[in-house]
Amino acid sequence: MGCRRVKVDLVPTRRAKIPATTYPVERFTLDNGLRVVLTPDRSAPVNGVAVVYDVGIRSEPEGRTGFAHLFEHLMFQGSENLEKLAHFRHVQGAGGTFNGSTHLDYTDYFETLPSNALERALFLEADRMRGPRLTEENLRNQVDVVKEEIRVNVLNRPYGGFPWLTLPPVMFDTFPNAHDGYGSFDDLESATVADAADFFRRYYASGNAVLAVSGDIDVAEATELIERHFGDVPARPAPERPDFAEPDLTAERRTSYTDKLAPLPAVAGAWRVPDPVTDFAGYLAYVVLAEVLTDGDASRLVERLVQRDRTVTSLGGYLGFMGDPFDVRDPTALLLQAHLPPGGDVDKVLRTIDEELDRLATDGLTEGELDRTQARMATHLLRDTDAVLGRALRMAVLEQQRGEPGLLNELPRLVGEVTEEQVRAAAASLRPERRASIEVIAGGAR
Amino acid sequence: MTATVETGTRPLPPLGPTRKLKLPKQAERTLANGLTVIAVRRPAVPLVELRLWMPFGRTHLARGAMLAQTILSGTETKTATQIAAELQKVGGGLSAGLDPDRLMLSGAGLATGLGRMLEILTDVLTNATYPADWVGTERDRLIDRIQVAQSQPAHLARTALLKRIYGKHPYAVQTPEPEHVRAVKPPALRRLHAERVHPAGAVLVLVGDVHPDRALDAAEQALSVWQGDGHPAELPPAPPLEPGPLLLVDRPGSVQSSLRVALPAVPRTHPDHAALQLANLLFGGYFSSRWVENIREDKGYTYGPHSLVEHSVAGSVLVASAEVATEVTAPALLETMYELGRLAALPPKPDELEQARQYALGTLQLGMSTQAGLASLTSAYAGNGLRLDFLAEHAARLARATADDVAEAAARYLSPAKAVTVVLGDAERVAGPLAALTAVRTEPA
């Protein structure tokens, strides 16, 4: 372990050739401003349908934490031609599945269905794009449901919200970036139907949405169906997107809290990374670095912290607070998180991470280390795109944030083109003085 | 108050003609060493999925768990790090998992690396060494993981339910105690590996961008050196459910109660299975079910209630699960028993049955539409002695189940009189209200 070889080979080492997908991509915009992405693949009789609105946790108003997510729930409570419960029944009664999810920069709504149900899914999405049925009764019901969701995922379990809800307020100073995206119970209970109507009018505009359809479609037929169902959705322009920028940290930030249910200590650290949209090449180096550090038994930090020092019992590293490297905008971060054995020393773990980052920056990678990490990343990327819905969702967001849905096909190759120099430079930038970290004190230790 | 819209009159578009279930191209071979290999072609992305199912019933729980934790920790020629690095080179990875029926090695990699993945797999199966230092590290990690699991309400509720359902059956306890894990040493792991990690009775499934016959050849070439006879370790049949007082497991300070209701069920091949699956969907098996529409969409008691028929080699069971707010624990139980009773006592309406049937048939198509889904399905079927062609048979049974069949299945399997109920929650707050509905027995967590 102490005798890593610095890579000085004259010829490149052999590695598995990184394959690519060639999913075709068609793009167009309806007269009302709705952007559409089609990606046909007739290898299975299924479709993915995704509608993505350019509004997320960062856009919710002060005093209304959790509102973007609550509103997502309200989009399932009936619409112009649909009673409450009808959406679920029509999707599932066609043999399909559905869901929605709220992210920092967008909110998505989606179905996977047998391909004989495509038109039905388009009808359902168009209907709620025209307007959800916002009623006091449905609002109160969904506030209750969301509170139970928060209890399941945060309040009634150990490590609830760690670190995706607990670290942003350490790293960021402004409300959009720092606040709790699940929301406080007070804020949720204060929400009104009028708030919801305003939120819909402002953000759920045809010009602020992307529709993507993947799978077993004929492009001409699908285009006609989309025009039929979405063509008369009233045109409303996208609101201007505020600037969420914050300066990088210049001094280390560190905090801790006691989790009364947690049996083991834990720590998470985050460093700002380049803008994922305007500096994609620079950003990709960090995506690769996270995997070099933490992907599997042959990765740097697993070898050092888990196996050699035994100071850590489990470890993860990823881009974006919600683990979403290719669908988040600036400002965002590289995160490392670890659970420690009972009585573990968080300071020592952070010091060791600094030491390993230094060593990576100074000595570079070992022979084959980068190649094998990139090959493994290609597998993960390809596996995600195998699901018909995965393609629709990813392409919808790539269209929304970059105008470039076809980037999905390019990701394995682009990841494979990141160089050792770039990874070293990325590691060198993860200095303690740019780090925000949070420690979980094990209040439930026995 | 209704904002932004008025009720419109656009008609719901009809569904197009149903696509027939089409099975992918596949091939199967039983090798001389007794290993069954099934290869399925789905070339959508240039990857291959791998699942190796090895019968592992009646093994010592802590040793079995430790074997799964350390089987990839070294061979005679490779360290754990080298195994992981060699797999990564072909975009691959392997992981091991255990349940009371089987040991499973699973992974995925670039299709061009299939041969190399199989070589490394074979090395692990035939030459795993369980090095002492690595076993020591992994032992501590497993103990840490068990501690974290034991702090999670879902795990505690599951543990209590299994114990209540299975009594002295090997399924009753599925997580080892930390002190038992601490006692496991490398020689015991080597012995267990030599006794039980055998090709006889095992099934290897390969799914992806492969030609099935060539994938079988590759598997045969790599894995023929793996030897070892089957091990007579039949599990006894799971005992029938024995209804009794509600078991309340105390978790002081809990802000939610974990409600679990177990009901009898039958295996996939049983003539009642399709009707039972439909009855379960009507009750709580999908979002548009009576239970979910009642306790979530009407009353707001819970976020993600669901019910599922779980199949194991020694028996099947239906489990309904919901995490409900502490203050509505008894009302949630009341609604649950009401919906079970209503389904057991009254026939379903034709349109809600058709809706559930379409969901069951449609999701068969969706489950087959990815390499990973197809691999897991093929492996789960094969572990229970079935092949993918059973999907067509199952679809036909779903299509022909009548309202009478479903009503009969509901009366037989979903009757609240047959339920075994466990609640994990704050006993001080929920015991009284629950006792107003049913007999309650309280235990500490």
Automatic annotation (TrEMBL), chain B:
Q: Where is the signal peptide?
A: none
User: What range(s) does the Peptidase M16 N-terminal domain occupy?
Assistant: 69-176
From what superkingdom does this record's organism come?
Bacteria
Please give the Gene3D superfamilies that the UniProt record associates with this protein.
Metalloenzyme, LuxS/M16 peptidase-like (3.30.830.10)
- Domain Peptidase M16 C-terminal stretches: 187-358
Kindly give the InterPro entries that the UniProt entry links to this protein: Metalloenz_LuxS/M16, MPP/UQCRC_Complex, Pept_M16_N, Peptidase_M16_C
Q: One GO MF term, please? A: metal ion binding
Task: State the protein's name.
Answer: Insulinase family protein
- Organism of origin: Micromonospora globispora
